[in-house]
Structure formats: structure tokens, C-alpha cells
Write a structure and sequence with these properties.
Layout (H helix, E strand, L loop, with lengths): L4 H10 L4 H12 L8 E4 L2 H9 L15 E5 L25 H8 L3 E6 L33 H8 L5 E6 L6 H5 L3 E4 L19 E6 L2 H11 L24 E6 L12 H14 L2 E6 L2 H12 L3 H7 L1 H6 L6 H8 L6 H19 L7 E5 L7 H6 L1 H8 L11 E10 L5 E9 L3 H15 L13
Parallel strand pairs: 2-3, 2-4, 7-8, 7-9
Antiparallel strand pairs: 1-3, 4-6, 5-6, 5-10, 9-11, 10-11
């Protein structure tokens, strides 16, 4: 079934499909087996039907996401369904929906389940889960990417029209790239994090996975909004200048600052993506990427890891054996940092933020690979920290520098695994990024996710 939002909406408007019919069909197609370890708790048919029946007397025209099925990363609350954050012993059952989930349900969307993740959203691989390593939608020997692993794979395999993830260090972009999806990391504070288990609370974002950039934009319109209950929520700032309206400049790291980690194919795929951007009217501008890389190193080598410790401190200290080994190693390292260390790193970050400000005077967006390479599950299991670190090379700096970002698919390796780029810009240029991403996708995409359904331009 084609789950593009526009496709389903046309069927609903014509009367050819009802939400109850959709969830019955989805339930049958997804089945009971979960060989890729996508789900932690999929909703039962009767639970999905409750949401679908609630739409029966509603006006389709008034609900932008009427009858649209979506998956939810299991560190985001769905009322009445346990939230585990990838740790069974941590689980609790919320009485209310996360603010962003409630907004989507109010817009007509239907939740279909809670998805697998790297425990406590700590990782970019999708393998750090007691519920099993989530497997890539194209080749199950490869990683799905994380931490929003099941959220990406569920959409790629046609189980949901879109999904919610979270993104602190790349968790909403790396899985998108590895599964031929659009992954949007909104500006910090644009989507409420009320009802989300924090990783690094000052940096966390709720992210969106979708089959197309146009779908991601539709979801963002319904999901965003200031939330006074969330101390980190921010009111969006309107931008006058529109990226890609009449040509645009895009920054590209210097050649010696690009890293592909011994992958022989991705350098050429990145070059092809650059040529695609030029064909769309873009002009490449070489930039010094070192300040971005230096910022990225602060995230895990500096005291920000202490935020992950703070988020689960009581649980970490009372039930340490319940935590996945690699996750415990990473979060446990936070205790070595002092308050003085934190201030020193804050000063470094402020200096780096000032350093990169000038770069934006000459460019509209920065373009990088979303990830320089992809690994098999076995490779990650052998060297979990090194592989994860490599995957964060182009992602870890984003929230520290208050950027918005969109991962968009642009090609495939010869073995059939997807490759994509990320475009990023200063905060609150989200819709402009998604507009540009839609143009890129129309120029490069041929299929939707891991389905064989054609991308119709």
C-alpha cells in the first residue's frame, strides 16, 4: 500500500477508503512476526480501531492528517501504553500523551505502535537494545542506524506514513539515510519535548521521518508550536529570505575535511549529490569545517554526557545492571566531569558558536554526507564505540550550534544500500530546508523508502 500522505488523503476524500479499513489492512500486512526488531509495543487492532472510529464523524477537510498512520519512538509518551526508552526495567505507563503526539492525534493521525531504539537514545547504530538489534530495511545484515531505529525502518517498509524520533546527536538523520527516507531535525524548541524521556535535555529535539520531504513538511506544520509546559520550547522566528528561490549558495567542507571511513563508493555518491545541487541552481562554496568538527567533539568528549547521566541518575545508581553494557559505559563516564569542566566547555562552545556565525554570511545552507559509511551489525558489535563515533562525524555538532537540518536520500551504493546528504541552516529555517529537500528528492529519488513503489515527481 502506498502510504504517502497525499495518496491516502485522496482516497479518504473520494470515499474509497476509511480509517477503519486502513488499520485493518495495516494490521494484517504487518502481521505478528518482527524479524527486524522494529517494535517494542505495536498497538493491537482494537486499540488502533478506537482511534480510527473516533474519526468517523470528523470533517476530513479540517484535519490535515486525517487517518494517517504513524509510529512513535519508545521514549515518547503515548497514553496508556508503556514507555520503556529501550529498557524494560525503566518502563512506566503515562496517563497523557506527549504534547507532540497529542497535536498529531488532534490533526487526525493514528498511532500504530512504539518503536525500538538504542537504549535511552544513546547511540547512532540501532543495536544497543535489549529488544534486539534493529535491522536495516534493505539488508538485514546491516544496521538500521539509531537511536531512532524502529521509527525509520517502520516507515521505510511501508508500515507507517511517518514516524516520530528524537535527535540529540544525529538520531533523526542517520537512520533516515540508511533507509532511504527524509529525516528532519527541527530547530531546538520548535517541537515540544513535554512527555519525552530526556537524553540531553538542553539539546533534545523530536524529529520526523517521512517518505518524502513534502510529507515531512505536512507533519511539521501540525506538530510544531510553542508549549508553555516545556521550559525549552521556543516561539518560531519568521524568515524573510527563502532558500533556493532564485539560486542559492551551499557550503561544502574542504576536501581534506571530508571523511568516508574507507568506503570506496560514498565519495563519488557525495560528488554526484553536489552536482545535483548545482543543477538545481546552487553554487558550491568551500568552507572551513574544522569549527564544526571541534564542536562535535565536545558532545561526547565533554561534559554534555553528564546530561544523559542526570536524566536517569536515580535509575542508573539503583539498577545499573539493567542498563545495556555499552550504554552504561558511555553514561557512566559522565561522573568524571566537574562543574568547572562544564564551564570550561561552555566557554569553548560559545567561542565556536561565534566563530561559525560568519560562515553564514556567504552561504544559505551547508551540505555534507549524512554519514560517511554504513556498517554491518557484526562490525558494530566488534567495535561499538569507534563505529558509532564515525557515524556522528557529520551530525554531532548540529544542536550545540542551534541548527536545523534535513537528511534527504540522493543515491545508492552498488550493493543496494542507500546514501544521502544532509542540508543544514540556522534555527527556524525548517520549512525552507524541507522545500529545498523536496527539490533534491524530485531530482534524485526513484522509490519510496525500501518499498518498490515509485517516487512520483
Amino acid at each position: 500500500m502506498n502510504l504517502k500522505i497525499s495518496q491516502l488523503r485522496n482516497l479518504y476524500l473520494s470515499g474509497a477508503l476509511k480509517p477503519t479499513d486502513l488499520v485493518k489492512q495495516l494490521d494484517a500486512e504487518i502481521g505478528t512476526e518482527d524479524i527486524r526488531h522494529i517494535w517494542i509495543r505495536r498497538l493491537r487492532l482494537d486499540e488502533m480501531l478506537t482511534y480510527a472510529k473516533n474519526l468517523e464523524d470528523k470533517n476530513i477537510a479540517e484535519l490535515p492528517l486525517y487517518g494517517i498512520p504513524f509510529a512513535i519512538k519508545d521514549n515518547i509518551d503515548l497514553a496508556g501504553i508503556p514507555t520503556t526508552a529501550g529498557c524494560p526495567e525503566y518502563a512506566y505507563t503515562p496517563k497523557a500523551n506527549a504534547t507532540v503526539v497529542q497535536k498529531l492525534i488532534d490533526a487526525g493521525a493514528i498511532p500504530i505502535g512504539k518503536t525500538n531504539l538504542d537504549q535511552f537514545a544513546t547511540g547512532l547504530v540501532g543495536t544497543r537494545s535489549p529488544y534486539g538489534a534493529c535491522k536495516n530495511s534493505f539488508n538485514p545484515k546491516y544496521i538500521s542506524g539509531g537511536s531512532s531505529a524502529g521509527s525509520a525502518v517502520s516507515v521505510a517498509l511501508g508500515m507507517a506514513s511517518f514516524s516520530l524520533g528524537t535527535d540529540t546527536a544525529g538520531s533523526g538523520r542517520v537512520p533516515a539515510s540508511f533507509n532511504n527516507l527524509v529525516g528532519h531535525k527541527p530547530s531546538c524548541g520548535l517541537l515540544s519535548t513535554s512527555g519525552v524521556v530526556p537524553a540531553c535535555r538542553t539539546l533534545d529535539c523530536v524529529s520526523i521521518f517521512a517518505l518524502t520531504a513534502e510529507d515531512a513538511a505536512k507533519v511539521l506544520e501540525s506538530a510544531q508550536g510553542f508549549d508553555e509546559k516545556d521550559a525549552y520550547s521556543r516561539k518560531a522566528v519568521d524568515e524573510v529570505h527563502t532558500i533556493a528561490e532564485e539560486g542559492f549558495n551551499f557550503g561544502v567542507p574542504k576536501q581534506n575535511q571530508l571523511a568516508f571511513f574507507n568506503n570506496n563508493e560514498t565519495p563519488e555518491l557525495f560528488k554526484q549529490a553536489i552536482e545535483q545541487l548545482k543543477a538545481l541552481g546552487g553554487k558550491a562554496v568551500e568552507i572551513d569545517f574544522e569549527p564544526f568538527l571541534e564542536t562535535a567533539r565536545l558532545l561526547y568528549e565533554g561534559p554534555w554526557v553528564a546530561e544523559r547521566y542526570t536524566a536517569i541518575r536515580e535509575f542508573f545508581e539503583t539498577k545499573p545492571d539493567s542498563i545495556f553494557p555499552v550504554t552504561k559505559q558511555i553514561i557512566g563516564g559522565a561522573t568524571k566531569f566537574s562543574a568547572a569542566d562544564t564551564y570550561v566547555s561552555q566557554y569553548k562552545l560559545k567561542a565556536l558558536q561565534r566563530k561559525v556565525e560568519g560562515i553564514w554570511e556567504d552561504i544559505d545552507v551547508i551540505v555534507t554526507p549524512t554519514a560517511g559509511t554504513i556498517y554491518t551489525i557484526d562490525e558494530v558489535n566488534k567495535e561499538p564505540v569507534r563505529c558509532n563515533s564515525n557515524l556522528g562525524y557529520y551530525t554531532n555538532f548540529m544542536n550545540l550550534l542551534d541548527l536545523s537540518a534535513t537528511a534527504v536520500p540522493t543515491g545508492f551504493q552498488h550493493d543496494g544500500l542507500p546514501f544521502g546528504i544532509t542540508i543544514c541552516a540556522p534555527a527556524f529555517k525548517d520549512m525552507q530546508l524541507l522545500t529545498l529537500a523536496a527539490k533534491i528528492q524530485k531530482h534524485s529519488s526513484k522509490t519510496l523508502g525500501a518499498t518498490s513503489l515509485p517516487f512520483i515527481k
